[in-house]
Design a protein that fits this description.
Blueprint lengths: L1 H6 L3 H30 L3 H5 L11 H16 L3 H14 L4 H13 L3 H13 L3 H9 L2 H17 L3 H14 L4 H13 L3 H8 L1
Helix pairs in contact: 2-4, 4-5, 5-6, 6-7, 7-8, 7-9, 9-10, 9-11, 10-11, 11-12
């Protein structure tokens, strides 16, 4: 199997095994992702009308195969291909903490500290122990300040939507810093989203 070849250091052999499995299940995976995408476009009312059996699901096993091929690519020093596979694993299962952690490491090593820290935070929120350690080791709390400063610049230019993205990231990385919420509230206020603004101000 692919994992046995991984453990034996046969990374190319492992990649071939995982690639074969992915190809064999590609049609079912594509159909599942398409149905989920269509489901996500429905309104809350339309979703409520569906029976539980009508809610599309995509097998976690598909994400696992991409994850392990990504690990094999990473071990073989093919970082870009590893990144694509971790992206695919997370697209299939957004709560796949192990994939988030590995993608974070690649992003951080590529100088994308802020993006990497967002992955770390998401994985830590899912209870991943390795992510919690990485968050401390890579000073991810400091990345929230970078997003905060970017948001301030855009907010001062009345670029509310773009500033909102930065403050959302800042809140995600450091939910204990009250100014993140206050500034995000100002963005909501500028966009006319009064209830959300009031929630952040309170």
């Amino acid at each position: 199997t692919g994992q046995k070849k991984m453990n034996a250091g046969d990374y190319q052999g492992a990649i071939a095994e995982f690639s074969s499995a992915i190809k064999m299940n590609q049609a079912e995976l594509d159909a599942g992702l398409k149905k989920r995408k269509e489901y996500n476009t429905l309104s809350n009312y339309e979703k409520a009308q569906l029976e539980n059996g009508d809610v599309p699901t995509v097998k976690h096993a598909f994400a696992v195969t991409y994850y392990w091929r990504g690990m094999a690519y990473f071990a073989a020093k093919s970082t870009e291909l590893a990144m694509k596979d971790f992206d695919s694993a997370i697209e299939i299962d957004p709560d796949y903490a192990d994939a988030l952690v590995e993608r974070c490491i690649i992003k951080h090593d590529a100088g994308k500290k802020g993006e990497g820290c967002l992955d770390i935070r998401a994985a830590a929120d899912l209870g991943n122990a390795k992510a919690k350690e990485l968050g401390e080791d890579k000073f991810c709390w400091n990345s929230s300040l970078d997003y905060y400063q970017e948001g301030i610049t855009k907010l001062n230019l009345n670029m509310f939507e773009k500033a909102l993205i930065d403050f959302n990231h800042a809140v995600k990385l450091n939910p204990d810093y009250s100014k993140n919420f206050m500034r995000r509230g100002q963005c909501y206020y500028g966009l006319g989203k009064w209830e959300l603004a009031l929630k952040d101000f309170s």
